[in-house]
Amino acid sequence: xxxxxxxxxxxxxxxxxxxxxxxxxxxxxxxxxxxxxxxxxxxxxxxxxxxxxxxxxxxxxxxxxxxxxxxxxxxxxxxxxxxxxxxxxxxxxxxxxxxxxxxxxxxxxxxxxxxxxxxxxxxxxxxxxxxxxxxxxxxxxxxxxxxxxxxxxxxxxxxxxxxxxxxxxxxxxxxxxxxxxxxxxxxxxxxxxxxxxxxxxxxxxxxxxxxxxxxxxxxxxxxxxxxxxxxxxxxxxxxxxxxxxxxxxxxxxxxxxxxxxxxxxxxxxxxxxxxxxxxxxxxxxxxxxxxxxxxxxxxxxxxxxxxxxxxxxxxxxxxxxxxxxxxxxxxxxxxxxxxxxxxxxxxxxxxxxxxxxxxxxxxxxxxxxxxxxxxxxxxxxxxxxxxxxxxxxxxxxxxxxxxxxxxxxxxxxxxxxxxxxxxxxxxxxxxxxxxxxxxxxxxxxxxxxxxxxxxxxxxxxxxxxxxxxxxxxxxxxxxxxxxxxxxxxxxxxxxxxxxxxxx
Length: 503
Fold this sequence. Notes:
- Helix content is about 65%, strand content about 10%.
- It is an alpha/beta fold.
- Among the domains are: about 1-105, no CATH class; about 110-240, 3-Layer(aba) Sandwich (Rossmann fold), CATH 3.40.50.10070; about 435-503, no CATH class.
- The longest helix is centred in the first third of the chain and has 49 residues, at about 55-105.
């Protein structure tokens, strides 16, 4: 119904614009033609048309009438052609508003961390890992909006039935539960609560062997979706094509490695690699530890835990290649492949991988970041901006960050490339920590708008902060296919670089 509504609205606005424009143009033309005829009568009464053009007054008036009638469709066609761009813009804005309305109407679900009923904390990784997998599974369903892992785990221990919780988060549904794990069995209890009236919508218990954990996850997700939006066919839950492993040792070691990865600490990062290597040794056909190993090595390079030398890159690409070989539809693998291809400036292939990741997991902020970056570099800046704004809405503070600068920087770059200069400057002012890319873009915007900047505090602070950098190399690291933009930034960096040396 939503798609039909969009189509009908698109046709309505297109037809409305066309008929309105034709009506206005025809009225204006009729008034103009009537005035022309009246003026011609006056003129022809005072001059000799025979002496001037060799035609009688009557013949001249007939020719004028024919010309005015023949020229009418030309004027209509021209007006439609000129106004076509404006009409398309109106229609696109309407579609965007309808899409936003549809997006806002999707049920908002949060999966809270489950309670670990085991006496020891050694099984915390398993309990949290199962919950994280549930979040990922639910995120793959386009018909709902799911709180991210970071948001969900940040709510551990909160009283979700309290008035303050409801007012602060506004979730429509909460998934809660508990897990008890023995050596070979799992006992899982799950409740789905409707936040509008504090009613339990569904309550289910599962007592199965550990090897059935993936089937249990599918059943839980299916019951949640059926309870929230009714019975629909959910293609993402066809586990047969993507069940990662039958080896529970490999799966549990992978969960340990993934949990360590998400601590964003140097020692934990190194330990995560050990766990993931052990998971690979337990089952070399399990794609998940390869994927998370590549992710963990990438994290190590990004956070400075490891040097970006040939050995590290070889290990990173080896794990990534194997993960893709074993499962070329894994969202995490495709997300990393997209980012890797952007750094290689193979933008068209980056878009292919990013699109696959987005189709598989459209609510993951890391996927949204990669997809937006790929769209931006394939000259689809409008949609890239929408993706970045969605990413910011879903998770303003990403990963180990302490502020919202990362998504804001992406939005800033997109607005700059889209020549929304004033809006880009507004975003710049919201950044807590200024990076070189955002700084040089801000300088370029001021120059294009003929605004003074050389005495501004933000500019002088940037000169002092970035003076030791190789400006040209830093601009190359932005990885953009727009040569004119890159040339302008490099030319500008040369100018401001000399200002820094002079200072």
